[in-house]
Design a protein that fits this description.
By secondary structure, the protein is mainly alpha-helical. Helices cover 88% and strands 0% of the residues.
Length: 115
């Protein structure tokens, strides 16, 4: 009886590990997509700032990425990125070269963690 319970527990652990691996794989694929959207918005920062729909698209990508990261308990950087993008949405005149640089560094950091 004990051996059978141990076998079942072992099988459950294997299934949980496989499921976790699949979830992480899905997150990485989704994160790459969202990071690409954010990166394109930052590369064309002046165009993005001039077009509210582009800022919204970048913000949605950051928000979606933050949601996925939160499920895995790694949303600290994603939360900061969303905060900065909120500033861009609300106060377009505060975006300067220093903020652009910091956002690019943040994206580079997130990209390294995802890849």
């Amino acid at each position: 009886m004990k051996d059978e319970r141990e076998k079942i527990n072992e099988q459950v652990k294997i299934m949980e590990a496989e499921q976790e691996e699949r979830i992480i794989g899905y997150f990485i694929e989704e994160a790459k997509y969202h990071l690409n959207t954010i990166e394109q918005g930052l590369i064309y920062m002046s165009n993005t700032i001039a077009a509210p729909e582009m800022i919204d698209e970048v913000f949605r990508a950051a928000h979606s990425g933050k949601g996925g990261a939160a499920m895995l308990g790694i949303n600290k950087i994603a939360h900061k990125l969303e905060d900065y993008l909120t500033i861009m949405q609300n106060c377009q005149e505060v975006v300067d070269k220093k903020l652009e640089y910091l956002l690019f560094r943040l994206i580079a950091c997130k990209s390294c963690k995802v890849r």
